[in-house]
Amino acid sequence: MDKNQIELQQPEQRLLRMFKERAGEYISGEEISRQLGISRTAVWKQINKLRETGYEFEAVSRKGYRLTGEPSRLAAADLMLAARTSVMGRNLKLLDVTGSTQDEARLLAEQGAPEGTLVIAEEQTKGKGRMGRSWYSPPGNGLWMSLLLRPNLPLGSAPQLTLLMAVAVCRAIRSVAGVDAGIKWPNDILISGRKTSGILLESTGEDERIRYCIAGIGIDVNMAAGELPEDLRAIMTSLRIESGQKINRSELAGTILNETEQLYGIYMTEGFGPIAALWEALSISLDKPVTVQTPAGEVKGTAVSLDSSGALIVRLADGQTTKIISGDVTVDPLN
Amino acid sequence: MDKNQIELQQPEQRLLRMFKERAGEYISGEEISRQLGISRTAVWKQINKLRETGYEFEAVSRKGYRLTGEPSRLAAADLMLAARTSVMGRNLKLLDVTGSTQDEARLLAEQGAPEGTLVIAEEQTKGKGRMGRSWYSPPGNGLWMSLLLRPNLPLGSAPQLTLLMAVAVCRAIRSVAGVDAGIKWPNDILISGRKTSGILLESTGEDERIRYCIAGIGIDVNMAAGELPEDLRAIMTSLRIESGQKINRSELAGTILNETEQLYGIYMTEGFGPIAALWEALSISLDKPVTVQTPAGEVKGTAVSLDSSGALIVRLADGQTTKIISGDVTVDPLN
Lengths: 335, 335
Prior knowledge:
- Two copies of one chain form a homodimer.
- By secondary structure, chain A is an alpha+beta fold.
- Chain A has three domains: 10-69, Arc Repressor Mutant, subunit A (Orthogonal Bundle); 76-282, 2-Layer Sandwich (BirA Bifunctional Protein, domain 2); 289-331, SH3 type barrels (Roll).
- Helices cover 32% and strands 28% of the residues of chain A.
- In chain A, the strands form three sheets. Chain A has a seven-stranded mixed beta sheet with strand order 3-4-5-9-8-7-6, with helices on both faces.
- The radius of gyration of chain A is 22 Å and the shape is elongated.
- Chains A, B: This is Bifunctional ligase/repressor BirA.
């Protein structure tokens, strides 16, 4: 099995949980051995395995081990600890650098990877945005990931999944970073009017069915203001800038997986209604004057709701409503 | 440029048209030279070029050239002559053998190939059917091709394109082979209750939009009864078996391209209405008792119409109607 593609084994994960639950404490090798049901030698091996992925332990004789440092890099063990999921992210591929996590995930999908397969890279050299745009994905302070979904649904449902992913990411950001993030239709996450996350849902279908979808998620997590590209500072921000603190990327990724698994479960059993309601509650474009650039031209009006397919309903100046299936929304300043 | 990927040049095509319009006649090199506006040497070169692709010419001094044989293999020149299109098939890749024309076309699509790009193979070693099934694609007597479409439409429109392709293929088969072919929902082509063609529309989308679709078309054209796999003879047939004659595969492919270009043009300007009407006129499952295997279970009833999205409307025994988005239809025998 590829070193980076690990389904985490129980001892390693349970070991880490012990140390995290008793932060700052020494735990004796004997106690660990007893609690995990493994030999003292095995404990020592597990500790060294975690050390190799960036965790730091102090070992003091007659006291035991103490966790003194965590990896600044994304670590599989950390991420799996934050994700209390049974499907999403359970098949994990962590990469130092890749062209695009979307392409990597697609390759895995074509090879038959299971639903919930997650690709995360520290750095993307050809990060993909919507409509052929590129996505700036430098190493270290961002979260660049792609999640494979295999819903048994018609192709026309893909727009609903796009909105579902926006809800999952927005809720995770709000909960982990404690910031007032909102959604701009269909799936940009904004804080104080500036974008902090973009989502790209790529779908592959056969006749009328979805074969698989890959949700690409890019979040500017810990960039300082100076790290954002100069020409984008007016329209982009990071969770660190907005929250005033460094955010644990593993916790954020894990929380996104938790939210996705919950919302996806609701969606598959209850349909789009509850997702639409959650989306509308987080929307920053509803009840606002908007300008929408659509393939058919510019539309100006007031965004009023989502329809059952996930399209945006806009009320025009003459009181009529129109349905926007696709487009770029700008919320107009109030005069 | 790849030898197989040719945008046909005018002289070669016009030369072939001359010989076909005056079948059996000798045409002097001088006349050809005059009509095509090229030198006698160039005429000789064009004739040799066609000879290389399988055309046979008799050359008699003082009489000129006479077309005496055509390639039994698919030839680009022949196909382009049959296709009076401006987009569909104009970028053509003819292959002797490939794994699957779908995969080949997808590769070209990802490299930016234009709408209408067509891949045809004499033989597929891993021909793809619907739902992961394989498609038997031996060399010589079938038509195995994939057509790239790049409509600027929402993903939910893909089912309509599936039906459009079925109409195009069915109309072409009826016109070229003179047989009473019909469509079983959504896109199988049947003659006398046996399948002669399958269509597979693979779509790739981004958020709510189609990025591209690849229509895979497989037709059992000139197989004799003995050439069909034994276990499939009860449910499969070929155009040759049904029409009692060998069918010109280039003419069939060209006619499919013509039909597709016309119907696609109508669809993009007028919407799905006219396509649905054409589909319904060719349907063999409407107003018949049907059993449909759907992802949600079996549905029995009478197929009554298409809805605006391309779904099949089935009237149940209790008089209520249900909408089938996806499934395998069997027309039940009347008792």
